[in-house]
Design brief:
Radius of gyration: 38 Å
GO cellular component, one term: mitochondrial outer membrane
Number of helices: 12
CATH architecture of one domain: 2-Layer Sandwich
Protein name: MID49 protein
Shape: globular
Strand content: 5-15%
Order of helices and strands: HHHHEHEEEEEHHEEEEEHHHHH
Subcellular location: Mitochondrion outer membrane
Distance between the termini: 78 Å
Number of strands: 11
CATH topology of one domain: Beta Polymerase, domain 2
Structural class: alpha+beta
Membrane topology: Single-pass membrane protein
Keywords: Membrane, Mitochondrion, Mitochondrion outer membrane, Transmembrane, Transmembrane helix
């Protein structure tokens, strides 16, 4: 009898709760529509099942029944959590009819069921979805378009200043040193070629040194005192038939070789002491001053909107070689560094044009990453370009959709080259582009890139 009474009371409670739920769902269709009401029905059913189990007697001595009840409770909670929030519709004050009838008053002595609080339907809480996890491909493209993009106005102003300074320097050299056959100055560097510039802050100024091929010849790097195939010497020939003075460049000869150091020292004195940079800077609306302490030929330019560094490089072009007056540190002063920069840029753009590839995108991202990372800055520029050129010979898919795969593959290739301590030049396999790195630098770079193979995002954090 007692059991019957309990069951009956439970049915009455169910009937009362059912009435509330029916009314709730009926009004939900008015407010939320069919799809919203269906979502609310699922959540309401789950809550009702929780209430039923909370008010039903437990089999204290049956562990299996308790375990079953616990599992069902977790399933219902998961159902509630998985139920999407209903979309926000019309506000409550815009409706003329009430959504819920008043709550039934409590009866003295009646067992209190667990109280369920419903959020007001007129102001549903919309939970913002968690941020979408970007793929490496999306991160690379975002990194390229936002962080590495040089403002067009800033780049245009920097190039305009560099060209004006180039014209002023050309005019000075022709008036000050008319006997020296310098060629026409021209600009170079990543800002013009678009392969590595992070900001419009650096430009190369190339000064051609025009030599008479009948009076000068090139000595291969393997035959020089440093035994380095990347450096060359320029020898004065036939001195017995064409003695000193026959070439205007004979004044820079040291031991029958055209000295890059001697030429740089002369140009450095001109930049520091002979050119009226304050007047030129005033004309261009900027402040220009040469860097006195640097061994390189550098100018620092400060403008209201941009700060620019210009490096001057005397350059000799002979026998299909491009040689820069950039000798290695040390006592050797007659060496000229072979530059492949022009060939690198040309080859990368040629390959991209042939298959609509993303090599330039990949190279620019890698240059930006390495240039801004304290442990990797010495890898930017030439080494990265040559790794991509080597990889292009074996990996043909360089479409933009494969950018993430190629990016990770370049990291793997770099780690392999660092393990060997050798990165052969794409244009001359005798040249090791890692030859001037210290062992500690190689170890540090290798460790960082090895970690980045499994976590490329480590390199994409903005510095």
């Amino acid at each position: 009898m007692a059991e019957f009474t309990r069951q009956r009371g439970k049915r009455q409670e169910d009937s009362g709760l059912g009435s509330v739920l029916d009314l709730l769902l009926a009004n939900a269709r008015l407010v939320l529509g069919v799809s919203g009401a269906a979502v609310l029905a699922i959540a309401t059913l789950a809550v009702k099942r929780l209430i039923d189990r909370a008010t039903s007697p437990r089999d204290e001595g049956d562990p299996k029944a308790e375990q079953k009840t616990l599992e069902e409770s977790w399933q219902d909670l998961a159902l509630i959590k998985a139920t999407p929030k209903p979309p926000k519709k019309q506000r409550r004050e815009d409706l003329s009819e009430p959504l819920l009838s008043p709550a039934r008053p409590a009866v003295p002595g009646e067992a209190h069921a667990p109280r369920v609080c419903f959020a007001p339907l007129e102001t549903p809480q919309v939970v913002s979805s968690p941020p979408r996890c970007l793929t490496l491909q999306e991160k690379l493209l975002s990194h390229y378009s936002s962080w590495l993009a040089v403002p067009e106005k800033q780049a245009s102003l920097a190039l305009q200043l560099a060209r004006s300074i180039c014209a002023q320097l050309q005019k000075f050299l022709r008036s000050k040193c008319p006997e020296l056959p310098f060629g026409s100055l021209f600009l170079s560097g990543p800002l013009l070629d678009g392969l590595g510039a992070l900001a419009a802050d650096h430009v190369h100024l190339m000064l051609p040194v025009v030599l008479d091929a009948t009076l000068w010849s090139l000595i291969p790097g393997e035959d020089t005192v440093v035994r380095n195939p990347q450096y060359w010497m320029i020898k004065r020939t036939d001195l017995e038939y064409f003695p000193r003075g026959c070439s205007p460049w004979d004044r820079f000869i040291v031991g029958q070789y055209l000295s890059s150091n001697a030429l740089n020292e002369t140009l450095h004195k001109m930049l520091v002491a002979s050119i009226n940079w304050p007047a030129i800077g005033s004309l261009l609306g900027s402040v220009i001053h040469p860097v006195v302490a640097s061994q390189d030929l550098k100018l620092e330019v400060k403008h209201d909107q941009v700060e620019l560094s210009i490096t001057l490089f005397p350059v000799v072009e002979m026998e299909d070689k491009v040689l820069l007056a950039a000798p290695p540190e040390g006592l050797v002063e007659n060496l000229w560094l072979e530059s492949f920069y022009r060939a690198e840029v040309s080859k990368v753009k040629e390959l991209d044009a042939g298959d609509s590839g993303a090599r330039q995108h990949c190279l620019r991202i890698l240059n930006g990453v390495c240039k801004s990372h304290p442990a990797l800055h010495k890898l930017s520029g030439t080494p990265l370009t040559h790794v991509i050129l080597h990889l292009s010979a074996t990996s043909s898919d360089w479409a933009e959709e494969s950018l993430a795969d190629r990016f990770q593959q370049v990291l793997e290739e770099l780690v392999g080259y660092l393990e060997k301590g050798v990165l052969p030049s794409y244009f001359n396999h005798k040249i090791n582009l890692f030859c001037e790195l210290l062992e500690e630098e190689i170890d540090e770079m290798g460790f960082m890139l090895y970690r980045a193979i499994s976590e490329p995002e480590l390199l994409l954090k903005e510095k």
